[in-house]
Every structure is written in C-alpha cells, then in structure tokens.
Amino acid sequence: MWPGTNIADDECGRLLVIECVYEGTLIRLINIYASNIDSERKIFFKDLKKWCTDNTIILGDFNVIQTEFDVSENNVFKGDVSRRELNLLLNEMNMCDVWRTANPKVRTYSRRQLSVIFLPGTRMLDSLIISNNLL
C-alpha cells in the first residue's frame, strides 16, 4: 500500500497532490499535466500556488518552454502568457527547476517532432520543480 495521503486531484486529470514522509520530512508531491492553451495554463499555474508548501516537488508536463535553451535552434522562443506566472510561482515559493539549475545552458529535449517542412522541432516541456530547501 502507498504510504502517502491523497490531498487533492481534479476531475480533468491535470493535477494530483499527495503528501508523504521521507526521512522524517513531510513532502508534498504534485503531478501536473498543464493545458496546451496559454491562457488556461496561466490560470492553472496561478492556482497551483495554493497547493505548494516549503517542501514541495512538482513534476509533469508543464507545456511551457521556460527558457530559450528549452527550444531547439530550429524553433522560435515565443511569448507565452503562462511563463511569467510559472516564474512568479518559482520565485515566491523559493523553488527551482532541478535539471535546468544543474544544466543552465544545455540544449536537450523531452519532446521531438517533425514539422511540415521536415525541420526537427524539439522542446523541453516536462520538468521537475523542487523547493530549494529540499536540495
């Protein structure tokens, strides 16, 4: 049996929040599947803050390109209204993207696709965000 406690989930399947104890520390795990629509994703990231604690790990498909290094040179780093909201969440809750922190300028991707004109399109959409005090 799973030793964690289900705190919340949503009927759309975009959020699952559980808590568990690891080495005596209560940790909140949040698995997300953010919308691929910018405006919906912005609201989702804003609402996500209420589930965060000082010991939170958020993982899943964020569906947002966070930095210019998260998109291949064949793609454009476009404006995204949800990116600012996600960055606010990270700053206000003292969190970081673990992989990007360890690899600040590395270009590697979690999604690869071919476009109509056959240029490889790649983007980093999946992330692991963690409270800095858990590092």
Count the E strands: 8
Number of helices: 3
CATH class categorisation: Alpha Beta
CATH topology: the name is Deoxyribonuclease I, Chain A
User: What fraction strand?
Assistant: 25-35%
Helix content: 10-25%
Q: For the largest beta sheet, what order do the strands appear in spatially? A: 1-2-3-4-8-5
Major sheet characteristics: 6 strands, mixed
The CATH architecture is: 4-Layer Sandwich
Q: What's the number of structural domains?
A: 1
CATH homologous superfamily assignment? Endonuclease/exonuclease/phosphatase
Q: Which stretches are poorly predicted, pLDDT < 50 over at least 5 residues?
A: none
Average predicted confidence as pLDDT: 84
Estimate the global geometry from the Cα principal axes: globular
Task: Provide the succession of SSEs.
Answer: EEEHEHEHEEE
Structural overview:
By secondary structure, the protein is an alpha+beta fold. 21% of the residues lie in helices and 33% in strands. The protein has one domain: Endonuclease/exonuclease/phosphatase (Deoxyribonuclease I, Chain A), CATH 3.60.10. Strands 1-2-3-4-8-5 form a six-stranded mixed beta sheet. It has a two-stranded antiparallel sheet with strand order 6-7. Helix 1 runs parallel beside helix 2. The radius of gyration is 16 Å and the shape is globular.
